[in-house]
């Protein structure tokens, strides 16, 4: 009986199969727990090339961090929106003024957990959600963003709505004409605040990404998302290569804890009520913002591949993609520029 109890069935598994199991497991915290199982496990765990890590909030500083973030957002907003906004093709061109101590991450660095995963090639980091849905009341509101980076921001897309719910009159064959309306000053300012908040969060994740790349030289793709699936950034092999070649790659020790946001060109689409007949949802105050550096070009065409792909489950992704397609059909939009911060 004792010999049966002592028998380890994992001993019969070849190393490549056991390593495949660890790759499928991929959760960094679970993998580290496997170290105590046996010496054999400990010798294989850190050879896995695919890792997922969920980072805990830095609780002792959470309140002060949130207060700091609100102050930063307020300062940037008043610098960028110092004069009353005018509608359609209005340019916001403030003096350049870098924000200090902005985007305080307020969560623990993943470096300590990841330092022994020297062979990791595919990494997914999940951080606490920092973007507050300012001006969006109730659980039925929506704010999503996605961003692509290399050495700097390539593009960012923000999708928001003051109300997002299942339509009571859902019919895939029934399509109502989209009724457009001009945004009021306050409505437009609020949507600029959403955009700045998302950009701050994206730039903080980019700073974290550069810190990770400085210590893990075999990485080929990295995703940084959040627990609420509100926003995400993704970089592939080409973007990582460009980041490594950038002169200012590390930025480690910087007091800002976020990457600089370059001069930006933005287009904003707005629909007061948007029916989504394919997926059966209704959006009120629907807003789409497409952001690129001023040297990039925002085109009105039918290839929206770089505008879709928001985080969420499969059904949510289909809904968000449909919303983007419908809003891009609109003729009227707001064109703005924003100086770096």
UniProtKB/TrEMBL annotation:
Natural source organism: Manihot esculenta
Transmembrane segments: none
UniProt-recorded name of the protein: F-box domain-containing protein
SUPFAM superfamilies assigned to the protein according to its UniProt record, in alphabetical order: F-box domain (SSF81383)
PANTHER family with a match to the protein in the record: OS05G0510400 PROTEIN-RELATED
Domain F-box: 11-48
Gene3D superfamilies to which the protein is assigned, alphabetical: 1.20.1280.50
């Amino acid at each position: 009986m004792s010999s049966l109890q002592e028998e380890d069935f994992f001993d019969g598994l070849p190393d490549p199969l056991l390593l495949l199991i660890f790759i499928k497991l991929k959760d960094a915290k679970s993998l580290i727990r496997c170290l105590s199982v046996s010496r054999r496990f400990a010798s294989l765990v850190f050879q896995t090339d695919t890792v997922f890590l969920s980072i805990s909030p830095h609780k002792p500083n959470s309140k002060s961090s949130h207060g700091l973030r609100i102050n930063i957002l307020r300062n940037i907003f008043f610098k960028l929106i110092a004069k009353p906004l005018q509608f359609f093709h209005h340019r916001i061109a403030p003096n350049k003024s870098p924000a200090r101590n902005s985007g305080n991450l307020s969560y623990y660095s993943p470096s300590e957990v990841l330092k022994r995963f020297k062979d990791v090639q595919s990494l997914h980091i999940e951080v606490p959600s920092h973007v507050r849905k300012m001006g969006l009341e109730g659980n039925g509101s929506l704010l999503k963003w996605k961003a692509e980076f290399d050495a700097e921001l390539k593009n960012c897309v923000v999708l928001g709505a003051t109300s997002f719910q299942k339509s009571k009159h859902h019919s895939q064959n029934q399509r109502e004409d989209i009724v457009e309306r001009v945004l009021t000053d306050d409505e437009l300012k609020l949507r600029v605040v959403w955009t700045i908040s998302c950009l701050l969060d994206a730039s903080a994740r980019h700073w974290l990404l550069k810190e990770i790349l400085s210590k893990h030289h075999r990485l080929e793709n990295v995703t940084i998302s959040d627990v609420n699936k509100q926003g995400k950034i993704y970089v592939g092999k080409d973007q990582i290569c460009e980041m490594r070649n950038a002169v200012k790659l590390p930025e480690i020790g910087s007091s800002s804890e976020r990457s600089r946001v370059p001069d930006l060109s933005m287009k904003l689409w707005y629909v007061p009520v948007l029916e989504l007949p394919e997926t059966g949802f209704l959006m009120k105050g629907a807003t789409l913002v497409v952001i690129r550096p001023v040297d990039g070009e925002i085109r009105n065409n039918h290839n929206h591949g770089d505008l879709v792909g928001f985080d969420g489950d499969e059904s949510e992704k289909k809904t968000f993609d449909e919303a983007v397609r419908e809003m891009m059909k609109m003729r009227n939009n707001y064109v703005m520029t924003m100086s770096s911060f």
